[in-house]
Amino acid sequence: MSGDWIVNVAGAALIAAIVWWFWIARPRVVKAQSDLVEIVVANGVYTPARIEAHAGTPITLRFLREDPSPCAEQVVFDTLGVSAELPLGEAREVTVTPPAAGEYDFTCQMQMYRGTLVVK
Ligand SMILES: [Cu+2]
Question: In order of start, what are the domains of the chain with their CATH numbers?
Fold first, then answer.
């Protein structure tokens, strides 16, 4: 009986961990407020990395490459057949029109940088 509080504390900690994992730590999905979204390319990640878009509607992604490594110099939308060179320190806009709902990944050539268009 005297150990009950430990069980309660452990239970509360577990619940907190679950809440953190499923609600707070989820990758941020950025809803396109307009048809233009800015994406920073730095430190091995696209920020934001998940972008919501709409099927059949063109969306422009403005890439700002801050990473000088050659790894970051190209962005490839494999399933959309689109790729672009990203000049260092200069914005480069890429417009794509996802044809249907689904998830469309975009990556660097070596697939270290990874992002996803979440299309509804
Ligand atoms: Cu790369």
Answer: 29-119 (2.60.40.420)
**pLDDT digits over 95-107, tens only?**
999 999 999 999 9
Distance 46 CA to ligand 1 centre (A): 11
- Residue range 8-20, pLDDT digits in tens: 777 777 666 656 6
Q: How far apart are the first and last CA of the chain?
A: 53
Q: Compute, in angstroms, the gap from residue 112 CA to the centroid of ligand 1.
A: 5
Q: Nearest 10 degrees: CA dihedral of 111, 118, 98, 78? A: 10
Task: Say how many Å lie between the CA of residue 114 and the centre of ligand 1.
Answer: 9
pTM of this prediction exceeds 0.70: yes
In a 13 Å sphere around the CA of 61, the CA atoms on its Cβ side amount to 30
